[in-house]
Write a structure and sequence with these properties.
single chain; 127 residues; mainly alpha; 3 helices; elongated; DUF2178 domain-containing protein; transmembrane helix; membrane; transmembrane
């Protein structure tokens, strides 16, 4: 009986190590599948936008009214996105602390507001 226990533990440790390798491999493929889904989703969204604009242009729906609606929708979306980034940022600090995702959110917010400042200056200078 005493000799079977070390053999059993050896078998268990080998199984554990092989499962650990499988988990690493599965994580890799899960990440690849996720990135592929992201690329395919963005490609489909871009195709839908381009096809929609083509039909709108053909039916003469791209006028000043549609442009005004689009500008106001983007402005509202921008403000909601800014608020959501700040809320998620605060939740991230409370729940996880200062981790890599905190710095990603910081980079996203700084880029978001820098782009806003740049385009506000650009459009103000051109008008």
């Amino acid at each position: 009986m005493p000799t079977s226990l070390p053999r059993f533990l050896t078998v268990i440790s080998k199984i554990y190590l092989s499962l650990k390798e499988m988990k690493t491999l599965n994580d890799f493929w899960n990440n690849m599948i996720g990135l592929t889904g992201l690329v395919v989703g963005l490609s489909i969204a871009l195709a839908v936008i381009l096809i929609n604009r083509k039909f709108m242009k053909k039916n003469r729906q791209l006028d000043e009214r549609q442009h005004t609606i689009s500008v106001h929708a983007r402005a509202g979306g921008w403000m909601v996105t800014s608020a959501l980034i700040i809320i998620v940022w605060a939740v991230e600090i409370v729940v996880e602390g200062v981790t890599f995702s905190f710095f990603l959110l910081t980079f996203l917010y700084v880029g978001h507001m820098t782009a806003y400042g740049f385009f506000a200056y650009h459009h103000a200078a051109n008008n």
